[in-house]
């Protein structure tokens, strides 16, 4: 059963994807599965171990369930300041 | 107490005026500026990008932690996004306190934690024409690690 | 590197401009301001007095020490004399460095040493009309000590 | 043999003396002796142990010799910042 979610990419992921936000139809049940699926599809160079995920604008563990209508953001290692 | 992401120039003088408080005996500020060299490579300019809602939320959490740990009166932190030239202000923090020790320690805490935790990214443009997203090289620690599961 | 005593208002924005250096990734400033309360007593205003030639000499010695101990690019310290109102700037220090750790530590060193060593004195005027030269009460440590010999 | 020296007072000493600088004729041989002499004469409340002395604009030990034409400054406990 496919769910429709909104996915945002930042920094190097945004460049590798070629866009900042997209609507994705996925059967992934966790955020981790979704990242692996997108990593393979788009050739992301960063392994999931170096990424963090936010669901609906909050940090979440990779085990977070993917639900219809969620907004997921994949966050490369930060470098502010 | 405010943590703000902005795509406009940071104006420390105007921001400082908002921190007037005659209980404050000390005000410590930190300016992070674009410097001409990083790890031995000549830098021409920087791009900063932020995940704004989460950056501001995580930033406020850091300010709250700083206030719990240290006896401060107020904290203001502003971080730039967009394209920055050499010498431009990337981040500006000000902390007021009755006494200087708390102001120094809280200011240091905020910049250290912000660099480690707030979803902001930096792309360096080098003199030789190349670019790099800082901390995103795939040969760094974890690059050969297993995928999340 | 400059340590300056002045009887004019301190203008941090103008002073900061003199510290532009694109090698600097960090600039830490400390403002010491007149606060409304000291040791539980309401303060109305302050007078600062300095022994200017020795204050500037001892101040420069402190800046030199800070630069020896920490990898800083530049340090500027300005201290007021004269009559100050609540909220006025009494002392302003700015330290630039490539990296923030050195800037924080040098700035802290300068204010700690300046307060302990530089011949500047402070007279507080209290809300109840009384006044006091800070640290000069004769009942403090050493008050009953022998005269020098 | 009296020497003529210039003496400067700061902060509480200046107020207790009622002036900032004066010319003094003294037989004191050290800075310490001179301070004791002036303390007695002017009723200074601070004991020498809490004062520092500068001779010709440099900090000096209390044992510093007083010479004709010197400038001495008596410095109460500092309180900058």
Whole-number average pLDDT of chain B? 92
**Proportion in helices of chain A:** 10-25%
Uncertain stretches of 5 or more adjacent residues of chain B? 140-149
CATH architecture of chain A: Roll
Which residue ranges of chain A are poorly predicted, with pLDDT under 50 across at least 5 consecutive positions? none
Instruction: Say which CATH homologous superfamily of chain A is assigned.
Output: Beta-grasp domain
Structural class of chain A: alpha+beta
Portion in strands of chain A: 25-35%
Number of distinct beta strands of chain B: 9
Topology, number of strands of chain A: 5
The SSE order of chain B reads EHEEEHEEEHEE
CATH fold topology of chain A: Ubiquitin-like (UB roll)
Largest sheet of chain B: 5 strands, antiparallel
Helix count, DSSP H or I runs of 4 or more residues of chain B: 3
CATH superfamily of chain B: Molybdopterin biosynthesis MoaE subunit
Describe the structure.
The complex is a heterotetramer, with two copies of chain A (81 residues) and two copies of chain B (149 residues). Chain A is globular and about 40 Å long. In chain A, strands 2-1-5-3-4 form a five-stranded mixed beta sheet. Helix content of chain A is 23%, strand content 31%. Chain A has 81 residues and is an alpha+beta fold. In chain A, strand 3 (52-55) and strand 4 (58-60) form a beta hairpin. Chain A is built from two helices and five strands, in the order βαβαβββ. Chain B has 149 residues and is an alpha+beta fold. Helix content of chain B is 28%, strand content 38%. Chain B contains three helices and nine strands. Chain B has helices at 12-17, 52-69, 100-117; strands at 2-6, 26-33, 37-38, 41-50, 72-80, 82-85, 89-97, 120-126, 131-133. In chain B, helix 2 (52-69) runs antiparallel to helix 3. Chain B is elongated, with a radius of gyration of 17 Å. Chains in contact: A-B, B-C, C-D. Chains A and B meet through helix 1 and helix 2 of A and strand 4, helix 2, helix 3 and strand 8 of B. Strand 2 of chain B pairs antiparallel with strand 2 (26-33) of chain C, so a sheet runs across the interface.
